[in-house]
Write a structure and sequence with these properties.
Layout: E1 14-19, H1 24-31, E2 39-44, E3 59-65, E4 77-81, H2 85-98, H3 102-114, E5 118-122, H4 124-138, E6 144-148, H5 161-173, E7 176-178, H6 183-190, E8 196-197, H7 209-215, E9 226-230, H8 239-248, H9 250-253, E10 257-261, H10 265-278, E11 281-284, H11 291-298, E12 303-306, H12 315-323, E13 326-330, E14 346-348, H13 353-365, H14 367-384, H15 387-407
Parallel strand pairs: 1-2, 1-5, 2-3, 3-4, 5-6, 6-7, 7-8, 9-10, 9-12, 10-11, 12-13, 13-14
Helix pairs in contact: 3-4, 4-5, 8-10, 8-13, 12-14
Length: 408
C-alpha cells in the first residue's frame, strides 16, 4: 500500500504546568523552556486571575478570565471570558464557595483535552493536591507526572496529620519527584516516594551572573551601610523576630539603614515603630518594586536577614549570597547545604530574637568575616546557581520524562 504524499506532522511535545501563575519562581522556571518548540500550558493552582509579568511562551488557562490592567502582554490567556477583571474575581470567589471541587474537574477536563505528555505540578499544598484530585477523577491513563516541592511542603506540612496522608499519596503516585535540597530527598522517601528522584536544582532557575555583577556594589560588605530584612510575617515568615533582634542591638545596628523588603502590613507598622522608638533609619520597600531593584539592595547590604519556621533554600538567602551580603538565615531552610555556619553565614533559630541578636552583632562587628564570606559565597553562586548551568539540567528533566513516557 502506497503511503500518502502528505507528510504526517509529529505532535509537538506538550507540557502542562500546574503552578502559581503569579509567582516569579514559576515564571523563571518555565521561561527556561523557551525556544524549545514545545507546546506549553499553565493551569493556575491558585485561582486568582493573575499572571506574573516575567512569564513567557505559555498559554494560561484561568477558570474565569477578565482583562486586568497591566496584564502580561503576549501571554495567551483563556477561561470563561467576562468583560471585567472585578467581575471575574467575584465569579471565581462564588465558584470556590459553592463548589470547591470545580477546579479539580476543570483541570481533569483540560488534561483530557490537551493530552499533554507531561504534567508538572510545582509545589504540593496547592498544585500537588489539585493534580492528585484530577488524576483520581480521570482514572486509568495519566500523563507522566513530575511533582516538585517548594519550601516547606514536606519538612513542615509533613508533620501535620491532615497533610501527611495527601503528601504520601502524591509521593506514591507521581512518576518523578523534584526538590531543592538533599534534606527533602530523604524526607520524601520516609513519606513513601515511589517515583524517580530528579537532580536537586534551585526552583528559581538560578541567576544571570552578568546581571548580578552589574547590580552588585563594588564595595566589600565591610564598607556597606545597609541591613536587609525579609518582611514576611505569615504562617511561616518571622520578620517580627528580626525586627525585635534589631531593637535589642540598637546601639550597634542603628548606625546602618534598615531596608525591609516584601513586607506585610503589620511588619510595615513594626518597622515604623523601630524607627520612632529606637532611632533607626528605616526604609520599607514597596511590594511592587521590580525584582532587579531588590537584588540591587542586597548588593549594597552588609547583612541580609531571613527568618521562617519552614522553607527550602530561601531565595532571599541565595540572592544575598550572590550579591555579596552576609546571610543570617533560619535553621529551617536547608541553609546548611549552602552556607558554612560561622564562616559564610550564620544559621539561627527562627523564633529566638536573642540568638538573632548575637548573630547580628557578630556580623556587624567582624569586617574580616563578612568580606571573606563574600568571596566564598560568590564561588558557590558560580558553581551551583549559574543560570547557564542550571538551565541545561532543567531541560534534561523534561527530555527524560518525555522519552520515558513515550516508551511506556
Amino acid at each position: 500500500m502506497e503511503r500518502s504524499g502528505v507528510a504526517c506532522m509529529a505532535k509537538r511535545p506538550t507540557i502542562l504546568f500546574v503552578a502559581m501563575a503569579g509567582s516569579i519562581h514559576a515564571a523563571r522556571w518555565i521561561n527556561q523552556l523557551e525556544g524549545r518548540g514545545w507546546d506549553l500550558h499553565l493551569f493556575p493552582s491558585l485561582d486568582q486571575g493573575v499572571v506574573h509579568p516575567e512569564l513567557r511562551g505559555v498559554r494560561v488557562h484561568h477558570s474565569v478570565y477578565g482583562p486586568r490592567p497591566g496584564s502580561t502582554v503576549g501571554v495567551p490567556q483563556s477561561g470563561v471570558n467576562v468583560y471585567s477583571y472585578k467581575l471575574a474575581w467575584v465569579l471565581r470567589r462564588y465558584l470556590n464557595l459553592r463548589d470547591p471541587g470545580y477546579r479539580a474537574r476543570q483541570l481533569s477536563k483540560l488534561i483530557d483535552r490537551l493530552r499533554p505528555d507531561v504534567v508538572h505540578s510545582m509545589e504540593f499544598q496547592a498544585a500537588g493536591y489539585l493534580t492528585l484530585e484530577a488524576k483520581r477523577l480521570l482514572g486509568g491513563r495519566f500523563p507522566a507526572w513530575i511533582a516538585s516541592i517548594w519550601g516547606s511542603d514536606i519538612s513542615l506540612f509533613g508533620r501535620i496529620p491532615e497533610h501527611r496522608a495527601r503528601i504520601g499519596q502524591i509521593l506514591a503516585e507521581c512518576d518523578y519527584y523534584g526538590c531543592e535540597c538533599e534534606r527533602d530527598v530523604g524526607l520524601a522517601r520516609q513519606h513513601g516516594l515511589r517515583g524517580a528522584v530528579l537532580p536537586v536544582l534551585p526552583a528559581n532557575g538560578g541567576f544571570d551572573l552578568d546581571a548580578v555583577r552589574a547590580l552588585r556594589s563594588p564595595e566589600p560588605p565591610s564598607r556597606r551601610r545597609t541591613i536587609m530584612v525579609k518582611g514576611y510575617q505569615t504562617w511561616a515568615g518571622r520578620a517580627m523576630v528580626a525586627l525585635r533582634a534589631l531593637a535589642r542591638c540598637a546601639d550597634l545596628a542603628k548606625r546602618f539603614q534598615v531596608v525591609v523588603h516584601s513586607p506585610s502590613e503589620d511588619v510595615k507598622l513594626a518597622a515604623q515603630l523601630l524607627a520612632v522608638d529606637h532611632g533607626f533609619d528605616v526604609k520599607v520597600l514597596s511590594p511592587e518594586l521590580p525584582h532587579a531593584e531588590i537584588l540591587g539592595y542586597h548588593g549594597r547590604a552588609r547583612v541580609s536577614i531571613g527568618l521562617s519556621i519552614g522553607d527550602g533554600p530561601s531565595v532571599s538567602m541565595l540572592e544575598a549570597m550572590a550579591m555579596g551580603s552576609f546571610p543570617i538565615q533560619s535553621d529551617t531552610s536547608c541553609a546548611a547545604e549552602w552556607i558554612v555556619d560561622g564562616q559564610t553565614g550564620l544559621i539561627v533559630p527562627p523564633e529566638d530574637p536573642e540568638a538573632v541578636e548575637r548573630a547580628l552583632r557578630m556580623a556587624l562587628a567582624d569586617d574580616a568575616l563578612v568580606d571573606r564570606a563574600m568571596a566564598a559565597n560568590w564561588a558557590v553562586t558560580c558553581d551551583r546557581l549559574n543560570q547557564a548551568t542550571v538551565r541545561p539540567r532543567a531541560l534534561e528533566l523534561y527530555d527524560r520524562a518525555l522519552a520515558e513516557g513515550r516508551r511506556q
